[in-house]
Amino acid sequence: MKRCIHVALLATLVSAAGWSQDVNVYSTTMAQLWKQETPGFDKYTYTPVTQYLGIDATKLGTDALSLHIYGWGMTDLADQSSPNGKSGGYLTSGYLQYRFSQANAEIKAGRFMVSQGGGMEHVDGVSARADLRGGFAISAFGGRPVRFASFLDPDAKQDYDFQHDVIFGTRLSLRIPKAGEIGLSYLQDGSTAAKDLPIPSPVDYSRKQLGIDFKLSPHSAVDFSGRTLFDLASHADTPATLAEKPSKIAEHDYTLSVKVADSVSVAGTFTERNFYAYFAGSNLKSLFRQDEKDKFRSFGGSVAWGSPSSIEVVADFRNTHRESYGDANRFGADVRWNVSKWKLLSGFGYHRVDADDAPLTGTHVPTYGLSHQELRAWAMYQKGLLSASLDGIFYSFNDKTNPNLGGKGSIYQVVGSVGYQTTANLKISGDISYGDDALFKKQVMGLLRVEYRFASAGKGGRK
Q1: Is there a smaller number of Cβ atoms within 10 Å at the N or the C end of the chain?
Q2: Interior/surface letters 111-130, b for 16+ CB within 10 angstroms, e for the rest
Q3: How many angstroms separate the CA atoms of 282 and 342, rounded?
Q4: Backbone angles phi, psi at 64, to 5 degrees
Q5: Cα–chain-centroid distance for residue 230?
Q6: How far apart are the first and last CA of the chain?
Q7: CA distance 312 to 319
């Protein structure tokens, strides 16, 4: 079914060759090279080449119709670098879009990202939006969630496929003149909860969420935004491992920033997430573990002094709390220096993290420490067609018995990059990095990147 959709999208582009469409092609090729030598094991040489390709084709027969495609493919020229094989690829997005001449309305069909109130979803389906009278607007989408392959948990993937059979959502918003916008949204992912499967699953990948979001700016110096998501799903009975019944609040996420003077601004954030509901239906299994059911809460703030065009100093503090790990406080400051006459932008920063010890089961050491210090310095230079950067970061850990550090008390990495814009459409750049981390000692890596942009236009347009 997916292959048919992809072929149909490409066929639409080919059949439009006789029209006066504008076509923009974005191409980036990256080639990497590194070697791995481990005493007692075979030596490996890795040379993966990855090609990113994007196409935006507009005016397909009418000014209102456009086609957008973006994807990537990779192959190994030497030893296999990925557990999934020596070659692969993915269609990240591919959709047709039609913009109506009235009510700021549009409709999309294909594979696309949708962001409306309750979440940001990757969908194979259809979406539409339109402005209504009185400052109201409405949007909706429906289809099947895009599923990303996972080799980490193949058993759970069976339930993952079974429950992710449909996704749909809608958002009603109201724009208030000189104040901002508020919205009310609903999202449902999956038609069958884990407890209602023929064979009930211990992991629930389905979601039903009601969201309230807003973005208010009653004054040019004030910006206040946030959202709250309510969990409406019917879950199984409270697991015996949880001391209390999970909250029906899936997430609070609020940010306030105020410019108190020309050169001084302050900002604050508050976030609270109930993983029991929040990560339930994520299709990014490589980033989130849906089987984690505890809570997360954080708050923090920052004070910035100066100007981004000269010198700016930013001091910040953040407290995070996880039910399963405890508390952590991160605090420090960054200094940014913009020397425009030298075409140089540089900075450095220091942060310290004081964290509770993490539990460690199955060993004679019951806990290990996570507290550490972070030092970073960087510089960027750009003049004409030439650009260059140098970035270094150093971590010093209090507890060398941390099993994730491989017995090391400190790790670091330095990355240098040089790029040259050879023509208006072609840019070549390269990175080289040197570092010492928990897995590798004195690791050297290189990256060569070629970026190409192509554009053609119909009569009256630019080429």
Answers
A1: N
A2: bbebebbbbebbbbbbbbbb
A3: 46
A4: -85, -15
A5: 23
A6: 36
A7: 23
Residues 30/449, Cβ–Cβ less than 8 Å: yes
pLDDT for 225-256, tens place per residue?
999 999 888 776 655 555 566 778 889 999 99
Two structure tokens written together for 146: 């895009």
Q: What percent of the chain has pLDDT over 90?
A: 48
Can you give the pLDDT at residue 288? 64
- Amino acid identity for residue 100 in this structure: F
Q: Give the tokens for residue 309.
A: 């065009």
Note the pLDDT tens digit of each residue in 60-75.
888 999 999 999 999 9
Task: Please state, in angstroms and rounded to a whole number, the distance separating the CA atoms of residues 449 and 441.
Answer: 25
Residue with tokens 């001091």: 315
Is the pLDDT reported for residue 376 higher than 60? yes
Q: How many CB atoms lie within 10 A of CB 383?
A: 10
- With a CB cutoff of 8 Å and minimum separation 6, the contacts of 449 are 28, 29, 30, 419, 428, 429, 430, 431
Give, in order, the Cα–Cα distances in Å from 98 to each of 62, 127, 148.
Answer: 9, 11, 27
Mean pLDDT of 37-44: 77
